[in-house]
Structures are given as structure tokens and as C-alpha cells.
Design goal:
This protein is 65% helix and 5% strand. It is mostly helical and 163 residues long. Helix 1 packs across helix 3 (67-92) and helix 3 crosses helix 5 (132-152).
Length: 163
């Protein structure tokens, strides 16, 4: 009689795919939020200026935009996008494209509520952007992060210790 052995495995996160998904979705977020800010607030650079104010102080929003402001905004935004995309990848990595997009979008909405209803205690200027533009931008960020992660992921499984 032939004996078969069953080995339990678990899927691991592809951190390279998570980094690329974070970079792509972070830049997509800035593009969408900037275009919508131009349409609704007549201020294309508003999102990057609000982000830069985390390091430069809230009063910096009142100053004319400069290259330094834009660079500081990007220097803050990109690593934060990588961290958030890593969290999204960790949560959704086992399920595939559909859950990646929908679950990522829902996690993007959760990030919106954290950013605009909790962190405003420290950075009060963010409360001025509560609403549809940022809700939509955060949903797209999360959906893109989940979708791009699933698209770029190389699935890897490792044995589970059965002791």
C-alpha cells in the first residue's frame, strides 16, 4: 500500500511586489488627488502641500508653493505609501485579484478615516480636506495597491511547522 504524506504550507508575502505596488499606487494617489483638487479647489498642488506641512508646519500651507515644498511632500508621501501598501499586501496576499482590489479599496477607506479623523488631532489642517476628493483618492490608492500587488506577486509557499 502506498503512503502519502501531506505537508501543510502557508503563502508568504512578496515584499518586492508590495514595494512596487506602494510606489505605483502612491504616485497614482497623488495624481488623482491633485487633479481632483484642481477641479474642486482650484489648487493642483494642495495634496502635496498638505503632506509637506507635516514636516514644515501648518503655516507652510499659506506660503506660495515651492520646489522644496513639493520635494518634502514627496519625501514624506512615498515612504508612507510603501508602508500602507505593505499593510494592504499583508492582509490580502492570500486571496487573489478580486479581493486584492476590493479589499485594498476598503483598507484604503480605513486609511482615510485614520488620516482624517485621528491624525487631525496632531495635524489639524487635514480636516479641511475631509470629503469626497480624499475619500475617492484613498479608495483608489487601496484598490490600486491591492490590485498591483496581486498582479506583481510571485506566489511562494513555505511549510508550516507541525509540532
Amino acid at each position: 500500500m502506498e503512503q502519502t504524506t501531506t505537508i501543510k504550507v502557508r503563502q508568504v508575502v512578496d515584499w518586492s511586489a508590495a514595494v512596487w505596488a506602494g510606489l505605483i499606487s502612491g504616485l497614482l494617489f497623488l495624481l488623482i488627488a491633485s487633479i481632483l483638487s484642481e477641479i474642486f479647489y482650484d489648487n493642483f498642488l494642495l495634496p502635496v502641500r498638505m503632506i509637506a506641512a507635516v514636516a514644515l508646519g501648518g503655516d507652510s500651507i499659506l506660503n506660495a508653493p515651492s520646489l522644496i515644498t513639493i520635494l518634502v511632500g514627496l519625501i514624506i508621501h512615498i515612504p508612507v505609501s510603501l508602508v500602507f501598501a505593505g499593510i494592504i499586501a499583508f492582509v490580502i496576499h492570500r486571496w487573489g485579484m478580486g479581493v486584492g482590489i476590493v479589499g485594498g479599496g476598503l483598507l484604503g477607506l480605513a486609511l482615510y478615516f485614520i488620516n482624517f479623523y485621528s491624525l487631525t488631532a496632531i495635524f489639524p489642517w487635514f480636516s479641511g480636506l475631509r470629503g469626497g476628493v480624499m475619500i475617492f483618492s484613498h479608495f483608489v490608492f487601496g484598490a490600486a495597491a491591492g490590485g498591483f500587488y496581486e498582479l506583481l506577486e510571485i506566489e511562494e509557499f513555505v511549510p508550516v511547522d507541525q509540532n
